[in-house]
What does this fold into?
Amino acid sequence: MPTEPLTPVLDPYALARELSGRHLIGGELVAAASGRTFDVVNPAKGEVVGQAAFGDAADVDRAVAAAVKAQKEWAKRPVRERGRLVAECGRALQAHVEELARLITLETGKALRTESRIEAGVLSDSFVFYGGLATELKGENVPFSPTVMTITQREPIGVVGAIIPWNVPLLLMALKIAPALVAGNAVIVKSAEEAPFTVLRVCQILNGILPPGLFNMLSGMGPECGAPLVAHPKVGKITFTGSVETGRIVYRTAADKLIPVTLELGGKSPMIVMDDADLDKAVAGAVVGMRFTRQGQSCTAASRIFVHSSVHDEFVGRLKAKVDAMVMGDPMDEKTDIGTIVSPQQFERVKGYIEAGIREGGTAHTCSALPEDPSLAKGLYVRPVIFTGLTNESRLAREEIFGPVTCIIRFDDFEDVIAQANDTEYGLAATIWTNDLKKAMDATQRLEAGLVQVNQNLVVQPNISYGGIKSSGLGKEASLEAMLEHFTHKKTIMINMA
Ligand code: ADP
It folds into this structure.
């Protein structure tokens, strides 16, 4: 039932309190069936800002029941109407960009100016983009015989489970939810433990536009809430972003049910800087590619930077100077470029990798300065580290760190660097920086990654398909292709007219 549009609440603390202890099921904000909750902490100050509902199998059952009911009616609506409503969600979210940006900063410690506002803007854009694609849910006319008309049509899968992580929850939820809804599915979102409130707020905003139950949101832990969602017999598709380890668990459960899955997992993305590269652009590209403004908490982070020997020292010096100039501070402060790590577990993990890099003989170039403000003393700040002197065999070059730590590896030979870049279990993204057209083209053909870029390090865009190969995942997100291939079934219809 359409309700009054919500008014943006710019005090994230007030919003976190208001949203505490609730899932969104069947159009209502409800407590967990068990009544349990868990604390949500602001990592910049180490303070508890609210309690999220602790979802379990009973909540999954309630959400699935609501979704099954709503989906049947939704699928019957004309496709242009579905598209119009999803685009309207995007416009409604636009009015909440500032509110959502502040709330996501409170939960995750990401800087408001450099990260959260941008992410909240892309969330809104993605809904508008997919709403406009509704009439592209076309089938085909297959040539077969003059007397047998053969056509295909795209049909919704039914109930989609969308499991998201904490690093860019708004962007990732948008790329899952918007195409799933336009294609005629109902969705149940399971938010990440660290960042439940912003996702719930988005769901509350959409709930004013979409029919109740079409869109449900559960918060909780992976094993207690995510696992029963994947295992539920009436969930017909899982779209998951998270770690490789959890991706494998999700895939196994989905295999037992024989349902399709999309998995966006980890990465160890190479960036290759050739001797003829424009170094200013390459250094700026490394800052963006490494996602230093997000403390490196990105699966596409350019965490292996191969630099030609002849420009290696110059590149390291310029990159260090650029990262040194970035301001670490209160994530809510407009002056801040770099905020905090999301949780104490991640904080310890990242510190552990820095120590391991030093033990392995690397030289740690530690950048930026810790904030001096005493109110941030408990904040999970990690100074960015650029390692030199490590090889592609080192632990830091092989494992995903998910922190502001990158390895610069020296090379001399083009063939050798392509081989090293591909010598990884991952295959999410890769970039090469050169003005040599032949080498650039050659690299695009030979780098093993879902996304290869030359002389740029652009972040995910709603209309450009994105997804990894090897251990980085299965299937694509974003773009029309993702909506057609991953949120519909194709039915073939044959009509014998003889
Ligand atoms: P990270 O450790 O980087 O947060 P995870 O893969 O653990 O990555 O988490 C990503 C998402 O997957 C989170 O929403 C989390 O709750 C969920 N999750 C974790 N374990 C499971 C599981 N066994 N089944 C389903 N979802 C899970």
Notes: Residues 163-166, 190, 192-193, 221-223, 226-227, 230, 242-243, 246, 249-250 surround adenosine-5'-diphosphate (CB under 6 Å).
